[in-house]
Design brief:
- Helix 3 crosses helix 9.
- A hairpin with a 5-residue loop joins strand 4 and strand 5.
- The two termini are about 10 Å apart.
- The protein is elongated, with a radius of gyration of 19 Å.
- It has ten helices and 13 strands.
- About 50% of the residues are buried.
- By secondary structure, it is an alpha/beta fold.
- Belongs to the bacterial solute-binding protein 3 family.
- Keywords: Signal.
- InterPro entries: SBP_3_CS (IPR018313), Solute-binding_3/MltF_N (IPR001638).
């Protein structure tokens, strides 16, 4: 959707979450709705050292090439993709990947913070060369900008190890979510109704103001499972020191993409740079470093919206 209030949502499917750390046997977390950005410890950033590939760099539009910079609009926070570490530095999966892309193109990345809803208009107006803020590539957005896909995200569940929860049949279970999200308003109510229609107990939907509290409820045994955005759940699992495990597979997936000006040759340059990083293994290294390797794609495309 286009408005700032709708943020990353496409329809009602994309939402803001939080980052997760382990502290004193529990999870100490920071909610995205908070006024602070203290995401706590993060994996070592920049796990790869990409270098310029002249053949690919030659495809960058002349005005961008002459500036020597890749100006990137970003909205903070959305861990583990883009957020600030305790020192105030912008870090995350998206950041490490974009840094490697810029290096491949022979450019210096310049990150400029923005309201989410203003990034695409700023790209259209020439203020930013590209957006990097976990944008879902949708048909509606493709009418305004072009997208280069780089990741696949959806919904994923997590539980305490061995809890035996089934996301397709959680009747009578307590499932934690962040309030007003797709899981709270659409996914779980529909699944709960299917339970009661079949004469089974309803799902007890435990809605929390922040994803931090929702995830903590599972760790503390107050909820049986949590349903959330796949990259955030995968990051939570990686940071939990064995206190959480994935249930089943990611579902309702759609591509994330980098928006660029409609018709810009930068789209093809970004696509070629990402293809190169996939071939070298650097893409996988970066994704694995942030615990989001299950969302990796095999081949980036321009305008790959599924709806």
């Amino acid at each position: 959707m286009k408005s700032a209030l709708q943020g990353r949502r496409s329809g009602a499917r994309w939402w803001r979450w939080t980052t997760i750390l382990v502290a004193s046997g529990a999870l100490a977390l920071s909610g995205c709705s908070s006024s602070t950005d203290s995401a706590g410890e993060s994996p070592e950033s920049s796990p790869v050292a990409a270098s310029v590939v002249e053949e690919i760099a030659a495809t960058v539009p002349e005005d961008i090439k002459a500036s020597g910079k890749l100006v990137i609009g970003v909205n903070i926070p959305y861990p583990p993709n883009e957020f600030k570490d305790p020192s105030g530095k912008i870090v995350g999966f998206d950041v490490d990947l974009m840094n490697a892309i810029a290096e491949t193109l022979g450019l210096t990345p310049e990150y400029r913070e923005s309201d989410f809803g203003k990034i695409i208009p700023a790209i259209q107006g020439g203020t930013y060369n590209v957006g990097m803020s976990s944008f879902t590539d949708t048909k509606e957005r493709e009418a305004s900008v072009d997208f280069v896909t780089y990741f696949s995200a959806g919904t994923l569940w997590a539980q305490r190890p061995g809890a035996g929860i089934d996301p397709t049949d959680a009747c009578g279970k307590k499932v934690a979510v962040q309030a007003t999200t797709h899981q709270d308003t659409t996914e779980l109510p529909a699944k709960s109704k299917a339970c009661t229609d079949a004469g089974k107990p309803a799902i007890e939907i435990m809605a929390f103001d922040g994803q931090d509290a929702a995830t903590n409820a599972v760790v503390l045994g107050q909820a049986d499972a949590v349903s959330a955005d796949s990259p955030v759940v995968l990051y939570a699992i990686k940071q939990s020191n064995g206190k959480l495990e994935q249930i089943g597979e990611v579902f309702d997936s759609a591509p994330y993409g980098w928006p660029v000006a409609k018709g810009s040759a930068l789209a093809a340059a970004l696509q070629k740079a990402l293809e190169h990083l996939i071939e070298t293994g650097d893409y996988e290294t970066i994704a694995t470093n942030w615990g989001v390797e299950q969302g990796m794609i095999d081949k980036p495309v321009i305008n790959g919206a599924v709806n």
